[in-house]
Amino acid sequence: MVTISKKKMDFKSNLKINFNGGDLTSDSGMLLFKEFDSQIGFSQVIKGSLNFNNDDVDHSLHENEDVVLHGYHPLLMFDGVTGDLIKAELRAGNVYTSRRAVRFIGPVFKEYRKKFKEIQLHLRADSGFATPGIYRIAEEHNISYTIRLKANAKLYDLAKPFLKKLNQNSEISKKQVIYGEFNYQAGSWDKNRKVIVKIEKPAEGCPNK
């Protein structure tokens, strides 16, 4: 077995117990976690990065099952680590996902980049936000992003070498996953951007792209 990393936890082996009363605690087990956290530096990594999760929600208010009073399609932004809501905006239910999205996230990017100049900021979003405007505003503020792309014939064509590699694997009885990357420029984009492809093949099944 390959050992990736070894960390030594320095805990005192002697315990002192008395029955003189005083303050009690039920969270002394946190000492173990704090020591572990101190050794691997997890908290420091969290402090050095921040993830934005951008999302939208279709929501309708019904007076009864037959009558729709109002439809809403709000924009939402969350902290990707804590799940805390950063910003929300209510929109009409008949607008597309990316409508006003640049105006929505732009001020957030500007504020966070001004306050946290040194930390790594990252945006995650679904394919509804895969627009040149969102790419550009993230790049302008030095914010990395992972945004799902809707599949099209060109992307399928570029992914063929990875699919071929997956099909060459003879272990059809096991689930298989393969990743690859290539440069791609859609017609509305101003430049090439890196695309990550993930292809899955369930055990004894057809591949899922």
Q: Could you describe the 3D structure shown?
A:
The chain has two domains: 45-147, 2-Layer Sandwich (Nucleotidyltransferase, domain 5), CATH 3.30.420; 153-201, no CATH class. Helix content is 27%, strand content 26%. It contains five helices and nine strands. The chain has helices at residues 30-40, 42-47, 101-115, 132-140, 153-167, and strands at 49-56, 59-62, 68-72, 75-79, 85-89, 120-125, 144-147, 176-184, 193-201. Strands 5-4-1-6-7 form a five-stranded mixed β-sheet. It is extended and about 65 Å long. The model is unreliable at 59-69 (pLDDT under 50).
Poorly predicted parts: 59-69
CATH fold title of the largest domain: Nucleotidyltransferase, domain 5
Strand content: 25-35%
- Euclidean distance between termini CA atoms: 32 Å
Question: What is the count of helical runs?
Answer: 5
Strands, count: 9
* CATH superfamily label of the largest domain: Ribonuclease H-like superfamily/Ribonuclease H
User: Radius of gyration, Cα only, in angstroms?
Assistant: 24 Å
- Widest sheet: strand order? 5-4-1-6-7
Helix content: 25-40%
Q: Give the name of the CATH architecture of the largest domain.
A: 2-Layer Sandwich
Biggest β-sheet: count, sense, barrel? 5 strands, mixed
What class do helices, strands and sheet pairing give? alpha/beta
What is the average per-residue confidence, as pLDDT, rounded to a whole number? 76
Order of helices and strands: HHEEEEEHEHEHEE
Shape: extended
**Which CATH first-tier class of the largest domain would you pick?**
Alpha Beta
Total number of distinct structural domains? 2
